[in-house]
């Protein structure tokens, strides 16, 4: 009968060691996953704040019929710095070819950033002399206006 007690105790000890090994393997994975989740939530909050602080106005949309170009003046009235390359133009619901779009910020055609208070000038060759144009920032904030009519 003395051997039965040792057998139960030995089995319990083996099970306890197995549970501890399993926990030792699982806990680091869970901690890493929770850290990644927290980082993702922080990035989501940052994107939301950027979107809330993004505001711009299309101050003019002028179609020049003699050279078939549309010139847009867009002022960054928010507090977020925007990327010029991340700003999209849609003319008549379509994205023009890269060769048909030129940009400059405050007269600088090589500018990559569009700072608060700056005006972005976009020149595009639209297919039609009148229509709608939409400007969308990299974070999805957009403004729409009509031109040529």
Describe the structure.
The chain has 149 residues and is α+β, with helices and mostly antiparallel strands. It folds into two domains: 52 residues; 92 residues, Sandwich (Immunoglobulin-like). It is built from one helix and nine strands. The strands form three sheets. It has a four-stranded antiparallel sheet with strand order 1-2-7-5, with no helix packed on it. A three-stranded antiparallel sheet has the order 4-8-9, with no helix packed on it. It has a two-stranded antiparallel sheet with strand order 3-6. A hairpin with a 4-residue loop joins strand 1 and strand 2. The radius of gyration is 30 Å and the shape is rod-shaped. The model has no long low-confidence stretch (mean pLDDT 87).
Care to give the gist of this entry?
The chain has one helix at 2-52; strands at 56-64, 69-76, 82-83, 88-91, 101-105, 113-114, 119-124, 131-136, 142-147.
Domain module count: 2
Indicate the mean pLDDT: 87
Strand order of the largest sheet: 1-2-7-5
By secondary-structure content and strand pairing, the structural class works out as alpha+beta
Q: What low-confidence regions span 5 or more consecutive residues with pLDDT below 50?
A: none
The radius of gyration is: 30 Å
Number of helical elements: 1
CATH class term of the largest domain: Mainly Beta
Succession of helices and strands: HEEEEEEEEE
Assign the CATH topology of the largest domain.
Immunoglobulin-like
Quaternary state of the chains? single chain
| Biggest sheet architecture | 4 strands, antiparallel
Q: How far apart are the termini?
A: 102 Å
CATH architecture of the largest domain: Sandwich
The proportion of residues in beta strands is 25-35%
Percent of residues in helical segments?
25-40%
């Amino acid at each position: 009968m003395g051997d039965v007690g040792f057998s139960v105790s030995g089995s319990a000890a083996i099970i306890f060691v197995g549970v501890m090994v399993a926990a030792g393997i699982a806990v680091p994975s869970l901690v890493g996953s929770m850290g990644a989740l927290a980082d993702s939530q922080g990035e989501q909050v940052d994107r939301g704040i950027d979107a809330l602080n993004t505001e711009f106005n299309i101050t003019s949309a002028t179609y020049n019929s003699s050279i078939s170009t549309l010139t847009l003046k867009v002022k960054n009235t928010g507090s977020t710095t925007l990327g010029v390359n991340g700003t999209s133009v849609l003319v008549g619901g379509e994205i023009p070819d890269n060769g048909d779009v030129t940009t400059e910020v405050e007269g600088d055609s090589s500018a990559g950033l569009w700072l608060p208070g700056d005006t972005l000038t976009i020149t595009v060759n639209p297919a039609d002399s009148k229509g709608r144009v939409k400007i969308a920032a990299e974070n999805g904030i957009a403004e729409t206006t009509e031109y040529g009519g």
